[in-house]
């Protein structure tokens, strides 16, 4: 089954992409498919093919054609980019990695390795970055360190989402969705002229869908006097399926443009999420001294494995264990998120060649999520996390056109604080406590970029950024009776502060209107911090920033009268101070704990290719491929890691291919499309092991869209996971601490129908 999508995509590309007859169209007609896309990655408007960066731009039309509605889905077609929803224990957060550099742990003490921006407003935590793609103009994915452009924590790259701005043209759309597992969705936007100088745009969405991981009662499914049933229903379900969706969001934008010199856009947004947690299934378990008797003849590591799409989670622990005076505990299986943001974007043109941009933003959210670590009625480990996050930022940029050169000079300041209440009940280690931790931090930066036109064909880009940052972790732990858990740890704090200078130098040469080459040297860093998982003061240890030097060459080309586009990039990275998580802290005298460390230095190298074509009007092809070689040059012996490990979520190979053809029906059109994605195997833990390996997979999605002649009415059918492939999105390996491994499978085959009306 796994080979079917590969053969289908290969046949499509081989049969059409390289057929001379396929490009026999009159070249006097320029193709629209590869029409110029304008991006703003370098703080000015540039055509995508003129930007000397490894950048992929995805328009709103392309997102609609592929039926993509969540930010993690855009990674399917972008080389060397991994975006995944996180595990249940880490809530509504985004796993993000580009070229083997990123972050997968939500903890606010840790920094993202991939910057996420919405209208140039930075999202400082992985929690809350798992965004719905609401009313976007385009998404720009920048690969490689963007230290001088977007600053700290964009060491792997950046994901920039640009929303549609108010124009006052009284346009809008409404979109209704229905599909598998009671999928119901509604999206819409309206753009209004309030006055001659004020326009407004309001966008909103709501979406709900049942999950696909059944939560069953073990005693009901497996009648056993030692583990009695707790439900009496015939289907043995304890509650709603896990892995579902429940999102609402609204965004309002008010644009004031009194003249050609000045404009100001005020944006407010609100997001709410209420759903069952991400759907885990038990891969394996080695329960330590389980309270419940084993089923005769069935070993401990198999009896609670339910199946590929179900689990026996109870989300509760009884009182005590083996004489340990523990309280009974229970956590909420639902995931909650509620947040809002407000920003003001002002632009003033002093002259035709000198302008100022100011972006002021505030964002706040609360979130809560829980986990049943053993997914069974055995008394193992539970956790519940409650977060409150506040973030303020101010950025100012001055752009000057000096004729031969374009100069951008600016500054950035941010302040943030996260309060984290973390309840932990781990019975194998007799741990039961809650935290009331505070994590404040701030950043100050100054930056400059110059783009110099040396000749009509050659451009040199140089950038520099100076960053100062500080972050503190305040530790507070309490037992459930309110007493202090560890007097030696209570009230302790750890502070990290540092300053870093990043550089960028790029030279590009346009050999013709359709062929550009470039070479780049760039640096970036991800902030350091203090270990957020101390079992005692001995584990309150700092970790330093990661730093990366990037050497990159590439070309961008359009040929056959813009009917074919082919871009190729090769890179080599020197990656120092790689931050990884140790789960073995035995030398400190603890069986249970973890430690963030700078594991060592690595060299990565790879290649990325992107191809698109419109051989004849209406027939479009696209493909991408990437290869990444990650090798540690040195690993600190104290980490107990080896030089042959690779960071989590780093596939060696990745490719995608898609094809669509618009069939003219006279007064309407019908467009079938297929997309195929391949990812080689990855690990989800720094200590690579079979228990945290996700196997390679190939997945196909199919789409069929009908549009009327005017193009303002459409009906689209999307079938995701067309061949019903069983594959994993994520994995949570707790085998080193509690003997448990959780898998998070992707949804089985599902369909949706989308009805859209533009006006």
Describe the protein in words:
There is one protein chain. The strands form nine sheets. The protein has a 22-stranded antiparallel barrel. The protein has a five-stranded mixed sheet with strand order 3-9-10-7-8. A three-stranded antiparallel sheet has the order 4-5-6, with no helix packed on it. The protein has 759 residues and is mainly beta. It is globular. Strand 24 (405-426) and strand 25 form a beta hairpin. The protein has a single domain (3-758), classed as TonB-dependent receptor, beta-barrel domain (Maltoporin, Chain A). The model is unreliable at 1-31 and 289-294 (pLDDT under 50). 4% of the residues lie in helices and 54% in strands. The relative contact order is 0.14. The longest helix has 15 residues, at 3-17.
What attributes does this structure have?
single chain; 759 residues; mainly beta; Maltoporin, Chain A; 22-stranded antiparallel β-barrel; 5-stranded mixed β-sheet; 4 helices; disordered N terminus
């Amino acid at each position: 089954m796994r080979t079917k999508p590969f053969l289908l995509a290969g046949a499509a590309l081989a049969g059409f992409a390289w057929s001379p007859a396929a490009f026999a169209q009159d070249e006097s007609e320029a193709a629209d498919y590869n029409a110029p896309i304008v991006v703003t990655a370098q703080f000015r408007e540039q055509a995508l093919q003129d930007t000397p960066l490894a950048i992929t731009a995805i328009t709103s039309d392309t997102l609609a054609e592929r039926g993509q509605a969540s930010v993690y889905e855009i990674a399917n077609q972008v080389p060397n980019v991994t975006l995944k929803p996180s595990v249940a224990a880490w809530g509504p957060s985004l796993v993000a990695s580009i070229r083997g550099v990123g972050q997968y742990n939500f903890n606010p003490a840790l920094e993202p390795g991939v910057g996420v921006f919405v209208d140039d407003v930075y999202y400082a935590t992985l929690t809350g970055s798992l965004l719905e793609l609401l009313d976007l103009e385009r998404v720009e994915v920048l690969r490689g360190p963007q230290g001088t452009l977007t600053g700290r924590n964009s060491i792997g790259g950046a994901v920039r989402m640009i929303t549609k701005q108010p124009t006052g043209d009284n346009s809008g759309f409404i979109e209704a969705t229905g599909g598998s597992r009671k999928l119901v969705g509604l999206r819409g936007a309206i753009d209004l002229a309030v006055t001659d100088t004020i326009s407004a745009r309001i966008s909103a969405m709501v979406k709900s869908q049942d999950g696909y991981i059944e939560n069953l009662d073990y005693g009901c499914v497996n009648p056993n006097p030692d583990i009695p049933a707790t439900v009496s229903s015939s289907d043995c379900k304890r509650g709603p399926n896990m892995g579902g969706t429940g999102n609402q969001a609204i965004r309002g934008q008010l644009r004031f443009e009194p003249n050609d010199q000045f404009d100001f856009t005020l944006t407010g947004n609100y997001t709410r999420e209420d759903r069952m947690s991400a759907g885990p299934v038990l891969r394996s378990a080695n329960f330590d001294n389980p309270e419940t008797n084993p089923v005769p003849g069935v070993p401990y590591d198999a009896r609670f494995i339910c199946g590929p799409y179900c689990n026996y989670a109870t989300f509760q622990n009884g009182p005590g264990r083996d004489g340990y005076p523990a309280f009974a505990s229970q956590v909420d299986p639902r995931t909650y998120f509620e947040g809002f943001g407000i920003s003001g974007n002002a632009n003033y043109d002093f002259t035709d060649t000198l302008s100022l941009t100011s972006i002021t933003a505030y964002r706040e959210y609360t979130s809560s999520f829980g986990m049943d670590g053993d997914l069974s009625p055995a008394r193992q480990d539970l956790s519940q996390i409650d977060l409150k996050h506040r973030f303020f930022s101010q950025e100012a940029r001055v752009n000057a056109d000096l004729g031969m050169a374009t100069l951008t000079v600016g500054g950035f300041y941010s302040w943030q604080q996260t309060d984290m209440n973390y309840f932990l009940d781990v019975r194998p280690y007799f741990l039961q406590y809650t935290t009331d931790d505070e994590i404040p931090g701030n950043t100050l930066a100054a930056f400059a970029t110059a783009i110099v036109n040396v000749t009509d064909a050659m451009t040199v880009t140089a950038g520099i950024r100076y960053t100062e940052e500080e972050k503190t972790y305040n530790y507070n732990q309490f037992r459930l009776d309110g007493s202090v858990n560890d007097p030696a740890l209570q009230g302790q704090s750890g502070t990290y502060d540092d300053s870093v200078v990043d550089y960028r130098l790029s030279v590009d040469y346009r050999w013709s209107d359709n062929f550009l080459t470039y070479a780049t040297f760039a640096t970036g860093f991800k902030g350091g911090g203090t270990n957020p998982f101390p079992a005692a003061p001995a584990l309150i240890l700092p970790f330093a920033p990661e730093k990366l030097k990037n050497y990159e060459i590439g070309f961008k080309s359009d040929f056959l009268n813009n009917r074919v586009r082919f871009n190729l990039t090769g890179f080599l990275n020197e990656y120092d101070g790689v931050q990884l998580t140790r789960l073995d802290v035995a030398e400190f005298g603890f069986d249970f704990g973890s430690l963030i460390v700078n594991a060592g230095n690595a060299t990565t190298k790879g290649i990325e290719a992107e191809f698109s074509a419109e051989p004849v009007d209406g027939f479009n092809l696209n493909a991408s491929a990437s290869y990444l070689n990650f090798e540690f040059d040195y690993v600190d012996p104290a980490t107990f890691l080896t030089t042959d490990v690779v960071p989590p979520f780093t596939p060696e190979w990745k490719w995608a291919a898609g094809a669509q053809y618009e069939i003219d029906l006279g007064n309407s059109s019908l467009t079938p499309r297929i997309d195929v994605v391949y990812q080689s195997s990855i690990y989800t833990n720094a200590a690579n092991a079979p228990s945290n390996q996700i196997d390679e997979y190939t997945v196909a999605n199919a789409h069929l869209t009908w549009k009327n002649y005017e193009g303002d009415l459409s009906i689209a059918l999307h079938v995701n996971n067309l061949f019903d492939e069983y594959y994993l999105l994520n994995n949570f390996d707790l085998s080193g601490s509690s003997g448990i491994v959780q898998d998070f499978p992707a949804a089985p085959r599902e369909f949706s129908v989308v009805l859209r009306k533009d006006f």
